[in-house]
Amino acid sequence: MNNAGERVRRCFGLAWRTAAKVGKEDPRRVVHSLKVGLALTLVSLLYLIKPLFEGIGQNAMSAVLTVVVVMEFTVGATLGKGLNRGLGTLLAGSLAFLVEYVADIPGRIFQAVFIGSAVFILGAVTTYVRFIPHIKKNYDYGVMIFLLTFNLITVSSYRVDNVWAIAKDRIATIAIGGGLCLVMSLLIFPNWSGQELHNSTISKLEGLANSIQACVVRYFNDSETQDDESDDLIYKGYKAVLDSKSKDETLILQGCEIKQALQASWEPRWSRYWHRIPWRQYKTVGITLLHFSYTVVALHGCLLSEIQTPGSIRALYKDSCIRLAEEVSKALRELANSIRNKRQFSPQALSDNINEALQHLNDDLKSQPQLFLGSKNFGAATNAEEDTRVSFSSVKSDCSSMFESKSKELSYALPFAAFTSMLVEMVAKLDRVIDAVDDLAKLSHFGEFRDEDEIE
Amino acid sequence: MNNAGERVRRCFGLAWRTAAKVGKEDPRRVVHSLKVGLALTLVSLLYLIKPLFEGIGQNAMSAVLTVVVVMEFTVGATLGKGLNRGLGTLLAGSLAFLVEYVADIPGRIFQAVFIGSAVFILGAVTTYVRFIPHIKKNYDYGVMIFLLTFNLITVSSYRVDNVWAIAKDRIATIAIGGGLCLVMSLLIFPNWSGQELHNSTISKLEGLANSIQACVVRYFNDSETQDDESDDLIYKGYKAVLDSKSKDETLILQGCEIKQALQASWEPRWSRYWHRIPWRQYKTVGITLLHFSYTVVALHGCLLSEIQTPGSIRALYKDSCIRLAEEVSKALRELANSIRNKRQFSPQALSDNINEALQHLNDDLKSQPQLFLGSKNFGAATNAEEDTRVSFSSVKSDCSSMFESKSKELSYALPFAAFTSMLVEMVAKLDRVIDAVDDLAKLSHFGEFRDEDEIE
């Protein structure tokens, strides 16, 4: 009994910690939850307060349903879902009336067959349409609502005479529910999609900067020991970028949708706000970051590689490699700060520092080529091969022990060459990122770059 | 006028071609669409046929709604959504009765306040709970249905006396709709999640094989010209693997869920079918393929790199690199075939071929080290630097022209070393893939490997 009590308590403790963590990660989640609760309570008043209930009646339930389904975290998502729901309902309503008009003419059985066929055809066609990637991405919810409303009206029309009343009530309650959602998400602590995009871009830049630093430090410090913590840090940094693609695309899509919606009419304040966000350019930045992150993945791959260049050789180039990586990280952080503070930056200053570091690495490679490229060691570097064997011993599977005997003869310099090459490649990719962020800064009309902002 | 007609015709043509393409890609989509149409027609009969309608009444609409929402492409997804909907409804129903019981005691106004508070609290709590990643992933739909049903019953209870009737009808119609969906998706041309997973694993293996081959051929043949077609092929191959993670996870999750559901009871035929699928192992294979694909991305990065080793040097190692890549591709195809035909394979035979190719590359690197590692050329290889400058001229942005002057002094051998290193790394990663597929073959009880199956 005591045991069970203990277990329940531990279970609750875990649930509480998980919940607290979710809230701490993003306090806006708590606010959003309270907003949904408030919206639901308000929409329930339609049912609870007598005069309101008499005006709307049983259909008030449909408004509650709309609030549950439409209310999303960001303004953009709420607007998108609301538009989808509204358009789907309207379109289905129009089509259903057409079908009803045709079905109205002859006998009862023909009517039933006609309705059945219409349901079958529309059901099959809309389901098929949802497989088209473009529809799936933008209008999946709208198509589902279309099918739902169409069936509701068409099938009801067989038993209920006044279908027009059903349709009218449904549209009215959906409008009430949708309107309430919009008001709640636009006016009370709004979460703008643009802000989300802004924040996610900043955190991606900083994550990559952390990744690179951790990567290089680990490569030169203790590559033999498995350091899970730094591995986690590296992984988290680029994983955020690799995973963010579809989430960002949704945000951008919503942004562009809303921009169009607001272009049509609406209040100037929001319109101005949304117009100032260069949605497409955020996408460009995201893509350059994605490509950049592939080189980080490859760099991380060099750490995890089963074939390693001996530490003694790596140590020769340690300083210049770390310096280059640090300059790259610093540049990424500078870009993140530029976006965060909405200030332009000087691409020239960033490049100069990186070029200097690159030159330094180049000098190092030149000054000690005999070890790195040492063709004399290549054939019979017994000491080095000894070293290599140590790394190899970590390989456990059967097959790799067969590879082992072959591949250890391959130049032990190859892995380090790959590592250096990835660093250099990273600089080239960083260049694209700098360009994209520079364009973003110009399109967003960030504040001018001032000399006192300069990187120390 | 004619112009507009032409445009409409072209628009329809495009829509038709898109629709045809979607169907051609996977003919099961057409079947599924017809199935949904049929299910909707059948459920509409509840409304259209008089005796049925008299039994169920207006609530038949709720069954239609359930079919629209629950019917998914695979058996697993349908079951998952059905279970979510069923559990959410039942749980909300129980809780709503508790609330109603408490609210039943005192005066009218207190009752309204109590209901309003309950709606607010439950609304806020469920919305918050949906932010927890584990819930979001597995039960998002169920939690939404819970909130929906709870509000429906609680709020209705204020105006309607017989809430039990509402709840009963709702549960009954949801059961009818859900049951119909299950029957349709289980019995009529079922699309098993396991089959999906099986097919997606095969196509991923083959896609990677194509990627690698195209990569290596392009690297050695005409790296100067931009060949969009082969670029597309390379990109498609690894993109499928990079993108598949969440889709596969959903399938695996569904599989495990269903396995648990079927474990409890149910017909032995399906139970046996689902038990034979080693869901978790498919996940392991997916993860090893993901890591493998990172090296393919890096290899592709070597092609797109702005710094290139001169073609004359690359040509020296062309044959052995292409051979190694071809062995790797062949091994991947062999694995795909093993999964497709449900036959075990011989890891030994695969490794032997690859080792031979690896040895060959090693010999080549050894026999001509003076060019690859040429420390004499390193300092002042004017010809080679001339070559490098050609590749550099393709870099257009301002910043990179600054990098150019520095980094071209970096050894021109680095990029090729990276390329080779990635190839060797790929062999090491392939090893993991082979192990994972081997385990999969054993866990799935694939047919024994026979000698006549051996790779020619």
TrEMBL record, chains A, B:
It is found in: Membrane. The chain crosses the membrane at residues 30-49, 86-103, 109-129, 141-159, 171-189. GO terms for cellular component: membrane. It holds the Pfam family ALMT. Its main location: membrane. GO terms for biological process: malate transport; monoatomic ion transmembrane transport. Keywords: Ion channel, Ion transport, Membrane, Transmembrane, Transmembrane helix, Transport. It is a multi-pass membrane protein. Belongs to the aromatic acid exporter (TC 2.A.85) family. This is Aluminum-activated malate transporter.
